[in-house]
Amino acid sequence: MGYSIFDETMVDMTWTAIEEAAGTGAIVLLPAGIIEEHGPHMGLAVDIYIAYLVSVLTKHELETRGITSLIAPPYYWGMSPSTGTFAGTFSVRKETMKAVIYDILASLRRWGLNRVFVINWHADYHHCLVILDAIKDAHRETGINAICILTESDVLRLHLTDAEEYVLVQKAPPSPGKPQKYVDLHAGSLETGIMLQYFPKQVDAALAKRLKGTELTYDDLKGLGRSDEATRKLIPGGYFGDPSGYDTEAARKYIEAYSKSVADTIQKYLKG
Predict the structure, then answer these.
(1) CATH architecture of the region 10-270
(2) pLDDT tens for each residue of 125-156
């Protein structure tokens, strides 16, 4: 990866280059995440680093297929009531988040960039619903064709139908590995492996190897966010998963396959 999460994004383009790209029908990829604690072994920006990474890899994949895309400045002011008890988790109000995403989309629409695909890496239920609400309002009020890319499991989790015009379902994303008895979703082996592979300065690998994996099920995680005390008791280290089990090569293969799947999904949509 480049010098920062702005590398290869619209931030490093001139306004004339953006206007020219809009005139040729370029699409926009909008990485979305949150600044949130990710255990004692990683920095706060894991979700936005990975959303940015998927966007860059997707952009490269689309380029090989003759599809021009721009990457919008990564959006990272999200919601996470489940981990808000930990220092470093910036969780904004629903109306704040919705307004900013709406305004980002409205700006893109004003410049003639009318097709936007949101690539989100933060799974909090409330966070995801606000993204969808902002997209719905922006579509209705500005006419922008903005869509959030979700997996089939996301559709079920968010109680959607797969028929929403603001949702694009990513068919058959790659499996993160063999089925495991316990949940490994937040700062566990996969995210630790991805970060070590692409952003190694953001990970204390020696500490990760010393961390004990959590033994939590999805039912256990229902207790997250009920109170600061309950959350601290459930995940005292601020992670759920097994950071010590990271495999950087497996993580690389997974995120490359995941990004290719996103590109496949976008290309299929563009073809109608």
Answers:
(1) 3-Layer(aba) Sandwich (3.40)
(2) 999 999 999 999 999 999 999 999 999 999 99
